[in-house]
Automatic annotation (TrEMBL):
Residue ranges crossing the lipid bilayer per the database entry: none
Domain spans labelled Core: 9-109
Name the record gives this protein: Iron-sulfur cluster assembly accessory protein
PROSITE patterns: HESB (PS01152)
Top-level lineage group: Bacteria
Lineage: Bacteria, Pseudomonadati, Bacteroidota, Chitinophagia, Chitinophagales
SUPFAM superfamilies: HesB-like domain
InterPro entries in alphabetical order: ATAP, ATAP_core_dom, FeS_cluster_insertion_CS, HesB-like_dom_sf, IscA_plant_cyanobact
Amino acid sequence: MEMIVSTPVTFTESAVNELKRLMGEEDFNTTHKLRVGVKGGGCSGLSYVLGFDEKLENDEEFDFEGVPCIMNKSHELYLYGMQIDWQDGLNSRGFTFSNPNASGTCGCGSSFSV
């Protein structure tokens, strides 16, 4: 019987497609993985971190549909169950975050409080 391991965060199909497009660019550093995390600051207390980076000592690795990801172990408390989407519309373009752990978010959607 195969064990299903859940990932701490999920990505929509459009987000996976955009990440794979970025990973396919000529100047992409293939040793980098997608870092998903948080940092202090922003209008609501914590800001999301999403970018390609080297793995650090306290990082856990996971893969989502072929996108290699890393996350600092201590950030999972804030991010577990979050879904990341890619919007490519006239009004909004970029990655958006739907976080069930956030008690409040700012108007720009890039920071939150717990």
